[in-house]
Design a protein that fits this description.
This protein is an alpha/beta fold. The chain has helices spanning 80-91, 109-122, 156-162, 181-189, 203-210, 233-240, 257-266, 317-326, 332-338, 341-346; strands at 8-11, 14-16, 21-22, 25-30, 33-39, 48-51, 56-59, 61-66, 68-69, 72-73, 95-103, 130-134, 169-174, 193-196, 214-217, 245-249, 272-275, 288-291, 294-299, 302-304, 364-367, 373-378, 381-382. It is globular and about 60 Å long. The two termini are 26 Å apart.
Length: 383
């Protein structure tokens, strides 16, 4: 019989619970979960204490779009070791929960990705929440950097592959104008979360898809029809719908900060969340990598192809939070929710991660005043 790990109380810092910021309180952790949040003087004498040297303790960041990190692309390393390397790279920047993201690739990669993620979860690789399949069921007109040769229509056999993970969460990005409504419903009824992305859909097509299984939008504004005066497009549908969720890349390159400020104001609070769309360069010394048959290079923080097309990002979640405060003029507490509670809620985990409250998993990040990461805990385990 395994002896439960003794409880420990984290003290000596401010605590942002997801709802409020507390001083002179402690977070009591036991069995990988948060046991309680109490006044420091109320911590039982039998509980071991770890005093932190200041900082702000907040819910760990949740990133639903992680293509790579630590010099590794998930597409190129469909393995437990590849996922572990990516997770370790992003953990340095406060990410305690993530979806390894497979972008458009040849047939056979989706089943391989599912096996790798399933094994990673079974082996307890820290932070893995499931998988994000981004393509190949997208519109070639809005493909971005995705391989045009691998883009293809969805088939019945693909539904079985997409629903095969069996553990964790599966997020699928597709172009809904190219997918029959009955197949969208099949994905939703199987418990998957489906987002519109890399899509040339009209406003009307998106509204129809929202009633047949689509619940979110992948990297809003990028690789989708824009909002125009007489053609609201995908962006207009996303902002007009109060119930759907939108991922935002806040790196100063993908979307103008002014545009993002307007979008956040248009949507109900809690429906906009941060993603990185990170590539292999995050947490790595190398400033370039190969994708498909081309080299992607980072210059001044912007990843692009030789012909200057955006190709994912070198963004990490701590920087995304910092940019949300500085560029989007959001209060720090809201930026922290956009990086934790809101993405967790989108994939149905808002009752388990994204808050510092009794019963939640002890996924935590300690930040300094400049939103640099000082420490992290995943399931109560520190680095």
């Amino acid at each position: 019989m395994t002896t439960p790990a003794p409880e420990i109380a984290l003290t000596g810092c401010r605590i942002f619970t997801g709802d409020e910021t507390l001083d002179r309180h402690a977070v009591v952790i036991g069995g990988g979960a948060i046991v309680d949040v109490v006044v420091e003087t109320s911590v039982p004498s039998a509980v071991k204490r770890r005093r932190l040297d200041g900082g702000l303790l907040a819910p760990g960041f949740v990133d639903l779009q992680v293509n790579g990190g630590g010099g590794v692309m998930f597409n190129h390393s469909l393995s437990v070791d590849g996922i572990r390397t990516i997770g370790e790279a992003h953990r340095r920047f406060g990410t305690t929960g993530f979806l390894p993201t497979l972008i458009t690739d040849k047939r056979g990669t989706i089943p391989a990705a599912m096996v790798a993620v399933r094994d990673a979860i079974a082996q307890g690789v820290p932070g893995v929440l499931g998988v994000h399949i981004e393509g190949p069921f997208i519109n070639v007109e809005r493909r971005g950097v995705h391989s045009p040769e691998a883009i293809r229509p969805i088939e019945l056999a693909d539904i079985a592959e997409l629903t095969s993970l069996g553990v964790g969460r599966t997020l699928v990005t597709l172009a809904p104008e190219l997918v029959p409504h009955d197949l969208l419903l099949d994905l939703r009824n199987a418990g998957l979360h489906v987002a519109a992305g890399h899509t040339a859909a009209s406003y009307e097509e998106i509204i129809g898809a929202l009633s047949h299984g689509i619940s979110g939008f992948t990297h809003l504004f990028n690789a989708m029809t824009p909002m125009e005066s007489r053609a609201p497009g995908v962006v207009g549908a996303a902002l007009d719908d109060p119930d759907s969720w939108c991922g935002l890349i806040v790196d100063g390159h993908h979307v103008s900060p002014a545009t993002l400020r307007v979008a956040i104001a248009a949507k109900p609070r809690g429906k906009m969340f941060l993603v990185t769309d990170a590539m292999a360069t995050v947490g790595a010394e190398e400033r370039s990598f190969d994708l498909y048959d081309q080299t992607i290079t980072e210059i001044d923080g912007r990843l692009s192809t030789a012909d200057n097309r955006l190709a994912g990002s070198s963004l990490d979640m701590a920087s995304a939070v910092r940019n949300t405060v500085q560029l989007l003029r959001q209060p720090l507490d809201e930026a922290l929710r956009m990086a934790s509670l809101y993405p967790a809620s989108f994939i149905g985990l808002g009752d388990r991660i994204g808050r510092i409250a009794p019963g939640y998993r002890a996924d935590l990040v300690l930040l300094d005043d400049e939103i640099n990461v000082l420490d992290t805990w995943i399931g109560g385990n520190g680095r």
